[in-house]
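User: Could you check the structure of this?
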Amino acid sequence: MRNEIKRGMLVAGAGIGLLAFALAASPAGAADTPPPPTTTTTQQGGPTPSETQTTHATVVVTAIDKSARKVTVKTSEAEMVDITVPADVKEFDKLKKGDKIDIDYMESIAIGMAPKGTKPNAIERTATVPGAAGREVVVTAEVVKVDATHNKVTIKGPSGKQTVSVTDPDLQARLGTLKKGQVLMFTYTEAVATAIQTK
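Assistant: Sure, the predicted structure tokens are below.
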């Protein structure tokens, strides 16, 4: 999906934050900084289409967890991103805090309808993404109100209610199909590095 969909996804512990960022576009001013190059593919293997995005970015290493093979990086837009690094990406062993690196990483999200009777919830589980096993976050939220005229939707997730503006044209076109009481399911697979190059 577009860059705005991935923004904030790693704060799924907040539950509703994942949904808000998935529906809303980038904050004002984000257009001042060109987004990193991305490639998006759609996979139809599950109950809902899954968008897998590959991102290439120049980032700064802010933290390293050697045992878990995870690295936290700061992007050019001052976002903090946690990335899992598979064993076959050897450059991980050479990383140091403060390093400026080029990194390619993948993440995916699927948005669909949850089964009838599903309650708002946020869970984590281990999932397999191309190239490595990663953390998968599933958040469900109930549609409380849809304002298709003004492109707004109010949703109730595990952290409460929130009204978000929908500025993605593709999602705007789908607002008319949403009904009060429906439960949306967002499935996000954390970022997994495919290549790292130190500068």
